[in-house]
Structures are given as structure tokens and as C-alpha cells.
Specification:
Order of helices and strands of chain B: EEEEEEEEEEE
Mean pLDDT of chain B: 90
Low-confidence stretches of chain B: none
Order of helices and strands of chain A: EEEEEEEEEEE
Largest interface: A-B, 24 and 23 residues
Largest sheet of chain B: 6 strands, mixed
Distance between the termini of chain B: 41 Å
Strand content of chain B: over 45%
Oligomer: heterodimer
Structural class of chain B: mainly beta
Number of helices of chain A: 0
Mean pLDDT of chain A: 94
């Protein structure tokens, strides 16, 4: 079991460019979560899929951010027209089920730097 | 919105001493509680998952205490060693919730 896989591990973009982050959840897990980690804001929930369907995107910035899960083996987080304040570590997590008690397994994260 | 406060933000203890990290939460519907360890450059490693029905939970080298009346959760490293140096985060979910609401984190340094 390779755990949650995130690619790339590091990404540097120029202001205004697009960034796409990839997540491969643990095989058989039905829920996928995206979080963002910064020094200032800490760990923040962004969005969540259950059986590939978007369930809760209440943490997603309303503009420029979008997430998809086209199949059960991967999810993407896309940031259009990146801004310096988007610089953060983006963490993906998956869990076997979607209850509040289910253990979420976190990937290593993608460190995004917007210059 | 609901918040999770974590204290202290930084903690330095000598090897063999205890280290206590505390989280307070506001959501009365909070039901599941988690403690994570994050080493530099690494992702979150689950230390313990606690259900609201149990007040004292013991792990390997640490104890987690839950006080539902005061809405307080604490992690007590009983005899810290240098390998415990890391960032620690608490997290909370409601009974009906799914995503985890995280505390602000504590950076622990254990000095030999």
C-alpha cells in the first residue's frame, strides 16, 4: 500500500499562471479531502468528494479554485491565475468511508510557490 | 464559525520531561478528536483517534485527555525524547461532519 500519492511534490509558478495538483487516494477509499496548510492560516479544509461526487466545497475560495474527481483513482485541484497568497502546502487525504470517525490518511503534500 | 484553539504555539522541554499541548473547541456537536504529528517536510501522522465517550486514552509514551464539559482536549507526552520534536495538531469533527477542523499547531522541541 503506497499510501496517498500527491504530485508534484513541489511546484513553482509565476503570478497569473495556472497550477494543477494531483492526488491518488488509497485504493478502495471512498472519500477524498483537500486541505491547505500555511503558516498564517494553519490547516484549512478546502473540499471533499464521496464516491467521486463533490459533497462539500465550503472551504474553497470562490474564484480561481476548482477541484474534480473524474475517476476513483485520482482527484485534481486546479488554481487559475495563481497569486502569491496561494502559496501553501496542499494536502490530500483519503478515508475508507465518509463518517466523522473515519481515519483520514494524508499524502505528503504539494508545496506550491507562486512568485 | 466553529473554532479550535491550540496552545502553546511553541514548546521547548528537556529530554525526559513531560510536554502538554491543549486544544479547546467551540462546537458542542464535536464528537471525534484526533492528534497528529508532523515532522519537518513530512505529512500528518495520526497519533490517536479519540471518541467522545472516553475521557482518558493512552498511547505509546503519551496520554490524551478529553474534558467534554470544558470542551478541552490535551496531549501529554509523558517522557519526551528528541524524536518527539515535531509539530503537533489536534483536529475535531462533529458527529455528522466529515472534514476535520484543525487546531493552530504546536511546534515542540525536545532538547537532549
Amino acid at each position: 500500500n503506497a499510501g496517498v500519492i500527491q504530485t508534484p511534490r513541489h511546484k513553482v509558478t509565476g503570478k497569473g499562471q495556472e497550477a494543477t495538483l494531483w492526488c491518488e487516494p488509497i485504493s478502495g477509499h471512498s472519500a477524498v479531502f483537500w486541505y491547505r496548510q500555511t503558516i498564517v492560516q494553519g490547516l484549512e479544509f478546502l473540499t471533499y468528494f464521496r464516491n467521486q461526487a463533490p459533497i462539500d466545497d465550503s472551504g474553497m475560495p470562490k474564484e480561481r479554485f476548482s477541484a474534480q474527481m473524474p475517476n476513483q483513482s485520482h482527484s485534481t485541484l486546479k488554481i487559475q491565475s495563481t497569486q502569491p497568497q496561494d502559496s501553501a502546502v496542499y494536502l490530500c487525504a483519503s478515508s475508507l468511508d465518509w463518517g466523522g470517525q473515519d481515519t483520514q490518511y494524508f499524502g505528503p503534500g504539494t508545496r506550491l510557490l507562486v512568485l | 464559525g466553529e473554532q479550535v484553539e491550540q496552545r502553546p504555539p511553541h514548546l521547548s522541554v528537556r529530554e525526559g520531561d513531560s510536554a502538554v499541548i491543549t486544544c479547546t473547541y467551540t462546537d458542542p456537536n464535536s464528537y471525534y478528536f484526533f492528534w497528529y504529528k508532523q515532522e519537518p517536510g513530512a505529512s500528518l501522522q495520526l497519533l490517536m483517534k479519540v471518541f467522545s465517550s472516553t475521557e482518558i486514552n493512552e498511547g505509546q509514551g503519551f496520554t490524551v485527555l478529553l474534558n467534554k464539559k470544558d470542551k478541552r482536549l490535551s496531549l501529554n507526552l509523558t517522557a519526551a525524547h528528541p524524536g518527539d520534536s515535531a509539530a503537533y495538531f489536534c483536529a475535531v469533527t462533529a458527529n455528522s461532519g466529515t472534514y476535520q477542523r484543525f487546531g493552530t499547531g504546536t511546534k515542540l522541541q525536545v532538547v537532549p
